[in-house]
What does this fold into?
Amino acid sequence: MKETAYLLQAALISGWWVGLASSQTFFAAFQFDQISPTAFRAFFAPDIILIAALSTLRAYRKNAAIEYVILGAFGYASLYCVNATVLTTSGYLSSALMLLGLAYNVFLCFNESLFRASSTNFARNVVKTLIQVVCIWILALVVIPYVILDAFESLAIPVLGIWLSLGAFLFVCFSVLGLTSSYFMVRDGGGTPLPLDQTNNLVVSGPYCYVRNPMAIAGIGQGLAIATIFQSVPILMYSLLGAFVWHLVVRPIEERDMAERFGDSYLDYRRCVSCWIPTFRQRVT
It folds into this structure.
């Protein structure tokens, strides 16, 4: 599982530098004011050697020390970018990207210790779930899209028309799906939707009767809806990349954890219900 995650990381870092070298618009979106392009490009060798090359090596050789070196590289780069953003009030997209990369590598290094069962107190889980939803929606659906639009100089009020109507409709539909899924996670799962505060029971009710990951579908759908509203290709790529990373990295780790906790019940459920495509003919109860 980690092998795929690190290969994906190596590919993304390499692809990012290819994008910087081949498109001035792409390069400008990640640039810091008052920091010369030469100084920015000075990070090429550290990124390729300490992140891309070591991630490729880690994909083929299981070694915790390599994981920690990569994590340290992301930590240093993240601190540099955040400090540069504070000093220049620019480069927000670069800082956001590095912080996401840092979080990604923290997850890869420590995922086994991050998963824990929630309390079984219903009221407490409702409050925690509402806080989670608000924080995640603000970050993933407001802050990051705003930073992307601003970086690519496409921040503007959406124009009334078919794209705004379609995007708003999709956003409402996927938001309802996400909230409904959260409700069943709390009610029947005895926990919260967040893997770091996960359910105590296997949830196969509500939307989970028809598809295994309705919350992931809801989140990705919300991102696609925002891309539709603003007619933004960068936000579309952000949403699709999120789906790609979730499917290849997060999903296998979550499924391994659920198989260990729920055993044959989860394995039977996984055989009956699709990951992405709703299964309406066979209802799981």
